[in-house]
Write a structure and sequence with these properties.
CATH class: Mainly Beta
Helix content: under 10%
Shape: globular
CATH architecture: Beta Barrel
Order of helices and strands: HEEEEEEEEEEEE
Number of helices: 1
Strand content: over 45%
Number of strands: 12
Length: about 170
């Protein structure tokens, strides 16, 4: 995955978290393109995707909440591309955390995936790890979100009895 632009460092502690969350929401709200790569380390398979994201403000008075509806194309090692879709909710939590949920079961049944609270600056990027791993059956999903100028990168590491995967998604302003 290519790297987005760097962001300037803006203080530390709660101020840095607030600034990082605000910038992430601003990038996502701007209308974004998406590209990503998923690697299944057990099967040796690699998949790449690219597409566009339609951004909506959440209904119901949630001011700090965005719905991202992705339409993309996914191609595996064989090169055959297939259409794909995804829907996510990005929101600012009560404690100022950046929160991510998927909406595969509809907007009224979100599944919480990750919350990001402690931000640090590393090589020009603001980054935060998920507060806790997301459990899906026996598998555990750990997440790192990184923020650069005009880019939000999401990195998942999936581990379980039959799973060893890495999934990287880069959202960039359109």
């Amino acid at each position: 995955m290519g790297r987005g632009g760097r962001v300037s460092r803006a203080g530390g502690g709660a101020a840095a978290s607030s600034t990082a969350v605000g910038r992430a929401m601003a990038v996502l709200a701007a209308g974004v393109r998406v590209r990503g790569v998923a690697v299944d380390h057990i099967a040796g398979a690699r998949f790449e995707r690219s597409g566009v994201v339609r951004v909506e403000r959440a209904a119901g008075g949630l001011a700090d909440c965005l719905i991202l509806r992705e339409r993309s194309s996914v191609a595996g090692s064989g090169g055959l591309a297939r259409p794909a879709w995804n829907a996510e909710r990005w929101s600012v939590g009560d404690a100022g955390t950046l929160e991510l949920a998927h909406l595969r079961f509809g907007p009224d049944r979100p599944v919480a995936l990750a919350a990001f609270a402690r931000w640090r600056w590393r090589r020009g990027w603001a980054e935060a790890r998920s507060v806790a791993p997301h459990a899906c059956g026996p598998d555990r999903y750990w997440c790192l979100v990184r923020l650069g100028a005009g880019a939000v990168e999401v990195r998942w590491r999936v581990l379980g009895p039959a799973a060893r995967q890495t999934v990287v998604t880069l959202y960039t302003t359109a």
